[in-house]
Design a protein that fits this description.
The protein has 86 residues and is of the alpha+beta class. A hairpin with a 6-residue loop joins strand 1 and strand 2. The longest helix is centred in the C-terminal third of the chain and has 12 residues. It is elongated, with a radius of gyration of 16 Å. The structure holds zinc ion.
Length: 86
């Protein structure tokens, strides 16, 4: 019997933030995303193996890897209604 297994990455956008890029120094939108790599058996995702968080500059395309805590902090900032009030 042939057993087919592998890994598959699932990308999810958590938030969109306006930040000053550390690379090009432009203030622009940065999507905060999470990529969950899941173990698959017969193409059915079973359990997550690895979770990576990253943020990318939409101006120059520079991406930075974030820790889970950094990603959670940024996500909280993005969704805090007090901060987004004019
Ligand atoms: Zn940039």
């Amino acid at each position: 019997m042939l057993i087919i297994f592998g890994l598959k990455g699932y990308a999810e956008q958590l938030a969109m933030l306006t930040l000053v890029c550390a690379h090009c120094h432009n203030s622009c939108a940065h999507p905060l995303s999470r990529v969950v790599t899941k173990f698959t058996l017969f193409f059915v995702p079973l359990f997550p193996v690895r979770t990576e968080h990253s943020i990318q500059c939409t101006y120059c395309g520079a991406a930075s890897r974030l820790t889970k805590d950094q990603a959670e902090d940024l996500r909280r900032q993005a969704w805090d209604p007090a901060r987004n009030r004019p």
